[in-house]
Amino acid sequence: MEELRNCSSCFKVYFFKGVIDMCSECHAEEEASFKQVFSFLNENPQAGIDQIVEATGVKEDLLFRWAKTRRFQASHFPGIGYPCEKCSTKINQGKLCSSCIEDINRELAIFEAGRKTVSPAPERKTTYFSTRSNRKR
Ligand SMILES: [Zn+2]
Ligand SMILES: [Zn+2]
After folding, report:
1. Which residues have a beta carbon within 5 Å of ligand 2, which is an ion?
2. Which superkingdom is the protein from (predicted)?
3. Distant-in-sequence, close-in-space partners of 87: CB < 8 Å, separation ≥ 6
């Protein structure tokens, strides 16, 4: 199943085979960059994005993409992160930083609490009757 597509990196037309969204040249180039970054990281596991860019010349965007697709194990390379989708804090897992996740959970809790206080009006009556009937026994 081959289809013609534009390379996501150089926009040249190439045959898409269902996995790699790049032409073979760009993909080979990216793989070479990845190997370069990876060997640098093995020697400097604490290195951050800035240091990697400086040492290897690989673009930050590419590093973010690899970090997001988990080509780098966050547990091995704590210096590698990509921006949180909400506040741009550097993170190395998921899409949001822990404080944004907390914010969302808080908002969600408020929302849930709001729903609970609004809806149970008819329910309250039934509980009232059932407690009364329980008491009678
Ligand atoms: Zn290309
Ligand atoms: Zn955030």
Report:
1. 84, 86-87, 89, 97, 100
2. Bacteria
3. 97, 99, 100
